[in-house]
Amino acid sequence: MTSKLKTKIPVGYFHFHDDVGLNFQFNRALVNQCPMDEMMEAAQNIKTYADVKDIMTVLAEKALAEGRVLNASFYCRFAEFFCFGDSAEKKRLFDQFIQLFYKALEADMIERHKIEYPGGFLKAIRVKPDRSKTGTVVVHGGGDSFVEEFYLSVRGLIDEGFEVIMFEGPGQGEPLQKYNIKMTHEWEKPTKAVLDYFGLDNVTLVGISLGGYFALRAAAFEKRIRRVIAWDVVYDFFECVMGRNGMLKYYIINALVSINAKPIINCIARRQMRGKEMEKWIYDQMMYTFGAETPFDYLKTLKRYRCTKDISSRVSQDVLLLAGADDHIIPVRMYDRQFKALVNARSVEGRIFTKEDHASNHCQVGNIGLTLNYIIDWINRKSSE
Fold it and tell me: How far apart (Å, rounded) are the C-alpha atoms in residues 137 and 88?
C-alpha cells in the first residue's frame, strides 16, 4: 500500500507580489505545498493577470516532469483561477487539476460522491479516520471554491479521529463547471441534500470564506447541525464587496441599487473594470458564478447574502466565529456585528487572529495550523458538554 503523502503547513504570510489579490493566491499555494523559491521567481515575471495562466501552466508542466504531482496539481488550479475568456482552456485546466490532485493523494483513500440536486449533481468527498471516529465534520467553501483546495488545510481533522465530509454546492467547483448550477444564498438546500445523502446527524459544519455566511444560514434552518464554525465571518457580503476601499462607495452604490439605477451602476462598473485589472476579474468571475448578466444584476443578487437579524436569531447551536485583523476581503467589523446578532445561539465564541499569530489575513492563511488546532479544541470541548 502506498504511504500517505507527508505535508507540513507553513507559518508566515509572505510578499510574493505587490498586487494584493495575487499575493494572497501565492500564499494559498504555499499552504498547498508549492515551493516558495519557485513561486517567488514566477511572481516576479507576472506583470498583469493575463500573464498568470501561461506562467503557472509552465510551472505545472515542469513539476509534473519532475514527478511533483501535487505541485503540478495546484499550479493548474492557480492557472485555471486566472483563466479569462477561454472556457475550453479553463475546463482543461480544471480537469487536469482534479486528475493530478487525486493521483497525488491516492493513499488518503478519499471517497468521491455525486449527490442528486436540481439541475445536476453536487460533489462531495469523504475521508474516514484510521482510528475510532470521534465525530463528523462537514466542510464547504464559499465563492467559486473547490473542495480540493481546502483539503490539506483540514486534513488534520482526520488525524484527530474525525470523519471529514467536504462538499461543493451551487456556484462552486463541479456543480458550476459541469452542470452550470449557479450560486444560491439559500445554503440550507444543498446542506440538506448532503446530510440526507450521508444519513448524518449531530454534525459540526465548517464554512470557509463566504462559507462563513453559508454555514450560519444553513444552521438557522437545519438542526442536524449541532455546532457551526464561520471561518471567516461574513455578516453582509454586499458590504464586504462594496466597502472594501471605504464606506462612501458602499453607501453610494447601495443607494443606487436600492432605486434600481441599472444604467448608472453598469456604467460605473464598466469604468472601474477598464481601469483596474482586479475589478474586471472580480466582476467577470462573480457574474459567471452568480448567474448575473450585468454588474447591476450581480450587485442586486449580492444583497441577499446577509446574515440578517432574522436569520441569525434562528441559529440555536454552538457557534464559533473566526476572523483576521487584516483581512483584505472581509472587514473585521463583521465579527462584532455577527457576534451580537446571534442572540439565541446555545453559545458563541470566537477569535480575531492578529499579525503576531501570523494569521491575520483572509481565512488565516499564514498560520492555518494554529487555526485548525483552535477549531479542534473547540469541537472537542463542545461535543463533550
Answer: 35
CATH code of the domain occupying 20-104 = 1.20.1440
Looking at domain 110-236+305-383, its CATH superfamily turns out to be Alpha/Beta hydrolase fold, catalytic domain (3.40.50.1820)
Contact present, 77 and 153 (Cβ < 8 Å): no
Least confident of 179-188, 263-272, 351-360: 263-272
Write the pLDDT tens digit of every residue in 97-106.
999 999 999 9
Alpha carbon distances (Å) from 216 to 195, 210, 314? 15, 11, 9
pLDDT tier for residue 282 given thresholds of 50, 70 and 90: confident
Tell which wins on pLDDT, 285 or 168: 168
CATH 3.40.50.1820 domain locations along the chain: 110-236+305-383
Question: For residue 237, which of 303, 328, 185 has the smallest C-alpha distance?
Answer: 303
Beta bridge partners of 67: none
What are the Cα distances from residue 137, in Å, to 42, 155, 195, 227, 374?
36, 11, 11, 9, 15
Digit-coded pLDDT (tens) for 290-349: 999 999 999 999 999 999 889 999 999 999 999 999 999 999 999 999 999 999 999 999
Kind plus residue range of the DSSP H or E element containing 116: strand 111-117
Instruction: Outline which parts of the chain fall under CATH 1.20.1440.
Output: 20-104
Q: 34 phi and psi, to 5 degrees?
A: -70, 135
**Beta carbons of 233 and 211 less than 8 angstroms apart:** no
**Residue entry with cell 455546532:** 227
